[in-house]
Amino acid sequence: MKNVNFSNWLHVLLAVGLTTVVLTVQAQAVDVAAAEDLIKVNKCGKCHSVDKQKDGPSFKKTAAKYKGKSDGEAKLYVHLTTGPTIEIDGVKEEHTKVKAKDDAAIKNLARYVLSR
């Protein structure tokens, strides 16, 4: 029976683990410039800001609401794409649907909001 060099196996496992972490972080990285452009084009700043309450909640407040929840990004994505009924100063209205070239841009926007 061959001697197994556990040190070599440990190095291999460590390398695979670190590679997985790096790829996961890259996949979830936020393209800030693209998100801010989408916010500008869709006029989200009319009702929302990063840290101040306007007619809609700040991005910080939204991020705090979903902090630690594994489905936070998915729930925010649905909110951004379906136009749910919202209430502003006692008046109900449909939230504007975010318009983007593709779903990836909207998911990036959701990650941006959640990262604030």
TrEMBL record:
It comes from Rhodoferax lithotrophicus. Keywords: Electron transport, Heme, Iron, Metal-binding, Signal, Transport. The keyword Manganese does not apply. It comes from the Bacteria. This is Cytochrome c domain-containing protein. Residues 30-116 form the Cytochrome c domain. InterPro entries: Cyt_c-like_dom, Cyt_c-like_dom_sf, Cyt_c_ID. It holds the Pfam family Cytochrom_C. Residues 1-29 form the signal peptide.
